Amino acid sequence: MSPASTGASTTVAAVAPVSVPDSRMAPGGPGYRRMSFALFLAGVATFALLYCTQALLPLISGEFAATASQASWTVAAATGGLALFVLPMSALSERFGRRTVMTASLTVAVTVGILVPFAPSLGWLVVLRGLQGAALAGLPASATAYLAEEVRPRALVTAIGLFVAGNSVGGMSGRVITGWVAQEWGWRVAVGAVGVLAVGCAVAFRLLLPAPRHFTPGSLRPRLLLSTVRDHLANPLLRRLYAIGALFMTVFGGVYTVIGYRLTEAPFSLPQGIVGSIFLVYLVGTVSASTAGRLVGRLGRRGALYLAGGTTAAGLLLTLADTLPLVLAGLVLITTGFFAGHAVASSAVSSTATTGRAQASALYQSAYYIGSSAGSMAGAAAYHAGGWAATVCVGVLAVLGVVTITVMGSRAARLQPSLA
C-alpha cells in the first residue's frame, strides 16, 4: 500500500462521524419504570385533588342551599386557578428545574387539601379550591417538559399517555372514594380522604422520580418569557392544538360536573355511593390514553383526533336515553374519546415545540383548564336552564369545534407540507 493511499485512508478515518449514544430514557431502559410510575402517581394526585368536589356537588348544594351553577364554582375555581398560574409556574420550572417545581406544587396542594374539609361556607370553600388549583399548576406543564427532555422521542407519546392515564385514575379514584365515604360520613370527610390519598402519592412521587439529566436552567426575565409565549402563540399548529385541548375539556368538564345531579334525580334516583362509582368508567380513559401512541401510528395525528371526536359525540348522544345502561355506555364513549384526544394533542404540543417546551405545555394546560372551567359553568347553567339535553348540546358544539379545527389543520398541511 502506498503512502499516499495510507494518508488518504487516515484522513477519511479522521473525519468519520462518531455516533453518540442517546442517554435519554426508553421503555425497558434504566429508570424508565420508576419515572413512569412516579409521574403516574403525580397524575393521580393532581386529578384526585383537582376534581374531589365534582361528585359531591349535590351534597354541597344541599348543605349550603346553593344551585348547581353556584356549587360548580368549587370545581371551576380549582381548574381556573390552575389555568391562571400554569404559565408562571412553568417559568419557575425553567429556572429551578422540573422536579423541584413539581415537588413544591404537590406539597402546597396537599397542605391546602387538608384544610378544604374545614371550609365554613361555600365562599371559603371556593377560595380554598382556587388556591389548591393554583398550587397544582406546577405539575402538568413541568411533567410534560420533563418527559420531553428525559425520554427518547419515539417513546414520548407513550410516556405522556401514561401520565394522562394517571390523571384518569386520579379522577376516577377521587370521585369513587368521595362518593362512598360521603354516603356514610358526609362530603367533608370524603374530601379529607382524598387529601390523605394525595399525601401518599406525593411522598412516593418524590422518592421515585429520577433526577433530571438533560435539564438546562433558563432565565426568569419577563421579557424573555413573553417573547417565548409570543412565539408559541404565533405558531398556527400550536394554536390549533391549544383550542382542541380546550374544547375536549369543555365537553368533559360539563358532562362530569352535571352527571351527579342527573343520576341522583328521577328517573334514576341513585344514592351518592352509586353515583360516585359511575366514575369507574375513568378506567377506560386510562386504557385509551396509554394506547394513544399506537393510535397515532396507525391513523396519524389528525385521524386519531377525528376518531376521538366522533367517539365523544356518539357518547354524548347515547346519554340522552333514560335507561341507565345506555347512559353508562355513553359515558364510556365520552371518556374514551376525551382521554385519547387529550393524549394526542398534549404529546403533539411537546413534540412541536423545540424551545421553551415548558411554556408550550403551559399554554396548552392553560387552555385545557380554561376549557374545564368553562365547561363546568356552561354545563351547569345549561342543565339549570334546559335539563340534560341542553348540557349535551353544549358538548356537541364543542366536539364540532374540534372537528372543524382538525379539518383546518388538514387543509393547512396540504397547502404547506412543513406544517404537517
Automatic annotation (TrEMBL):
Keywords: Cell membrane, Membrane, Transmembrane, Transmembrane helix, Transport. Pfam families: MFS_1 (PF07690). It is found in: Cell membrane. GO terms for molecular function: transmembrane transporter activity. The keyword Disulfide bond does not apply. It is a multi-pass membrane protein. It comes from the Bacteria. InterPro entries: MFS, MFS_dom, MFS_trans_sf, Sugar_transporter_CS. The chain crosses the membrane at residues 37-60, 72-92, 104-125, 131-148, 155-173, 185-209, 241-261, 273-292, 304-321, 327-350, 362-382, 388-408. Residues 31-413 form the Major facilitator superfamily (MFS) profile domain. One of its GO terms (cellular component) is plasma membrane. PROSITE patterns: MFS (PS50850), SUGAR_TRANSPORT_1 (PS00216). Belongs to the major facilitator superfamily. This is MFS transporter. It comes from Streptomyces adustus.
